[in-house]
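Regression test case RT-17, inverse folding.

Input:
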């Protein structure tokens, strides 16, 4: 993810049509009569003006490091106060949000609430002063039929708002084909973050693309009848939307409370399809230690009634509504389940409890060079870690403290304690290891790997990392680049023998001061012939020079046309190469920088006096990336201060942030042959980590 490439646009779980799932594509139903253009225009004008693009700065984790990227989705303003309904996967891992309106206006937004189980989220626009927003409305009932015309609106690929038209293929679709096991449905949609548990999808063929996620599906009355969420890579325009009435209920609850509270009994359901039964719903699995298990419920039982009301789910598409009904029971309430078990009927009384989180918070912990996720009960069951509390290692920075601990930690390890203190969550870890230990003493880490409990020694690292390379022995340097010329090539070119032809003379170099020019053919050093082994490698020449002593004076024989030259050269130490320069990772900018070296100046034909800092890497979603800073830029000024070196860059950034004047901080860079001005937005500097 570099700042020069376009933002990564998001439509979660673009599905690849496998042979087993191609049956889903066969349901396309053409509209029997095309609607009048005026009807489509009226529906469009009710909703499209309040459809927004959402710019999300995401924090993902790669090899234990937090990496900021930019993603895009769509949403709809649904209240006069500026609440925006969208998908949870659009806001997922978001650290900061911007909303772009149809008229091009761009405003910051805050996350009001998210519900991964329904894949819905709500943002609230933050205008500079209070205002009333135009908005659209959800449909109160799902009354779609196959063949009904629908309009998909949003910002595909992060472009400005667009609209496509299609028809409803199936208003109640579960993504389970005739050949799939419905028991795997939730896990296929997300192992640690299942979604779509409580509704069936609207399948339609209005064209959508990545970036449409969270945008509205609109009927010809101008109602939001769905929220576009999923699409197919293959199989034509095959798209899936969350039903509008279901989305409305979740969105309203998120606006009111910021979260969705659901009840949990500890079992999973599946339809009667393939069982030969015609009454009830099948209990597919029962969690160990749950209220259901303690009450005597077993996998294979059939639930035939809930609080005295009969229930039957003959097909997979019937299951979500029943699961939603159970989830909406009051937390702590007693529920009566009529069950068929071992050929007999009985009634169980269970008490609901709050539904636990499926996935715990994940965060990078810089002192360990690792990303860690809080282990939930659901994650523990899936990993055979039931009853444990700790932090799951999800990634390691190569060469970081955790990767070089004694012994090294590994992905999948469960961190249990640090210096004897339990770390059940990220806050506990921060309290125990957030500050440098006295005299940089190693920490004793207890962790679980499979069934084993192990210990390790780990030395944490804190703060911005300035890398100072180990000093290297000076090597002799002649100051030229050369092209190998073999004997056969010399004959073909009409040159006076083999050697190394000078292709570049560095300014102020030893051979340059001795009078060498581009085109000279170097043939010997101190009467020892120079011979090229092939026509591609210049290594023999440079190795011969490096074998000599720094400050040694040598005679280099050369040919210049018909002339024979004897160049008196005083060799010098080679300038530092890139690997030998100091680097600085700036957390505030989310950019990697390093010293400006001799070869950087030479490559761009800059004067030897040129100062600045070279940009080595930029996170696309960090403040530097959002300012369009690129790898290879040379920073020469930040704010009102000239940048000469790495400490100067750090000081200039701190001073600009302390100043606090203006919305942006100017940044002057050298890019190629140009000098450019970029702008760092204070909003991103303060809103992103």
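Golden output:
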């Amino acid at each position: 993810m570099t700042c020069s490439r376009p933002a990564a646009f998001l439509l979660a779980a673009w599905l690849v049509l496998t042979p087993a799932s191609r049956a889903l594509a066969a349901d396309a139903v053409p509209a029997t009569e095309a609607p009048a253009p005026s009807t489509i225009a009226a529906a469009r004008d009710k909703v499209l003006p309040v459809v927004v693009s959402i710019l999300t700065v995401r924090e993902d984790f790669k090899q234990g490091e937090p990496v900021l990227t930019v993603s895009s989705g769509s949403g709809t303003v649904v209240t006069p106060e500026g609440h925006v309904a969208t998908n949870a996967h659009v806001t997922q891992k978001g650290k900061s949000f911007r909303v772009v309106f149809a008229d091009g206006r761009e405003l910051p937004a805050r996350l009001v609430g998210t519900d991964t189980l329904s894949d819905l989220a709500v943002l609230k626009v933050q205008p500079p002063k209070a205002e009333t927003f135009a908005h659209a409305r959800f449909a109160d009932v799902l009354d779609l039929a196959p063949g009904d015309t629908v309009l998909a609106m949003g910002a595909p690929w992060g472009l400005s708002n667009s609209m496509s038209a299609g028809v409803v293929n199936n208003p109640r679709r579960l993504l389970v084909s005739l050949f799939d096991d419905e028991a795997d449905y939730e896990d296929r949609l997300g192992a640690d973050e299942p979604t779509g548990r409580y509704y069936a999808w609207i399948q339609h063929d209005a064209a959508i693309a990545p970036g449409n996620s969270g945008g509205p599906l609109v009927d010809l009355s101008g109602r939001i009848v769905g929220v576009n969420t999923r699409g197919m890579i293959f199989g034509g325009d095959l798209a899936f939307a969350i039903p509008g009435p279901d989305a409305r209920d979740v969105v309203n609850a998120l606006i009111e409370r910021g979260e969705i509270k659901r009840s949990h009994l500890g079992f999973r359901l599946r339809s009667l399809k393939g069982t030969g039964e015609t009454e009830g719903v099948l209990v597919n699995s029962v969690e160990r230690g749950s209220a259901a298990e303690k009450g005597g419920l077993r996998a294979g039982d059939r639930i035939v009634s809930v609080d005295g009301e009969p229930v039957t789910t003959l097909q997979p598409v019937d299951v979500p509504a029943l699961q939603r009904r159970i989830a909406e029971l009051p937390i702590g309430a007693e529920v009566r389940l009529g069950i068929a078990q071992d050929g007999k009927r009985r009634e169980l009384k269970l008490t609901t409890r709050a539904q636990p989180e499926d996935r715990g918070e994940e965060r990078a912990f810089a002192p360990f060079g690792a990303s860690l996720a809080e282990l939930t009960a659901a994650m523990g069951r899936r990993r055979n870690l039931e009853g444990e509390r700790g932090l799951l290692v999800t990634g390691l920075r190569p060469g970081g403290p955790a990767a070089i601990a004694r012994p090294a930690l590994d992905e999948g390890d469960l961190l249990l304690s640090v210096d004897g203190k339990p770390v059940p969550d990220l806050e506990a870890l921060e309290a125990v290891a957030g500050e440098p230990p006295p005299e940089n003493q190693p920490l004793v880490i207890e962790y679980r790997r499979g069934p084993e409990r192990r210990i390790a020694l780990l030395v944490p690292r804190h703060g911005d990392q300035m890398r100072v390379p180990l000093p290297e022995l000076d090597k002799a340097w002649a100051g030229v680049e050369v092209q190998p010329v073999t004997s056969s090539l010399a004959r073909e070119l009409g040159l006076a023998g083999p050697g190394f032809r000078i292709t570049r003379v560095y300014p102020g170099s030893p051979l340059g001061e001795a009078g060498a020019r581009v085109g000279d053919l170097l043939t010997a050093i101190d009467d020892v012939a120079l011979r090229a082994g092939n026509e591609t490698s210049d290594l023999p020449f440079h190795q011969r020079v490096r074998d000599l002593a720094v400050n040694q004076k040598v005679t280099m024989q050369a040919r210049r046309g018909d002339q024979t030259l004897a160049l008196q050269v005083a060799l010098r130490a080679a300038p530092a190469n890139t690997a030998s320069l100091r680097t600085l990772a700036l957390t505030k900018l989310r950019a990697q920088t390093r010293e400006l070296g001799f070869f950087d100046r030479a490559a761009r034909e800059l004067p030897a006096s040129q100062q600045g800092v070279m940009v080595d890497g930029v996170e696309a979603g960090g403040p530097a990336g959002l300012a369009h800073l690129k790898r290879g830029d040379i920073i020469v000024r930040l704010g009102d201060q000239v940048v000469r070196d790495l400490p100067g860059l750090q000081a200039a950034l701190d001073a600009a942030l302390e100043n606090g004047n203006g919305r942006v901080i100017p940044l002057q860079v050298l890019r190629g042959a140009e000098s450019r001005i970029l702008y760092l937005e204070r909003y991103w500097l303060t809103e992103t980590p």
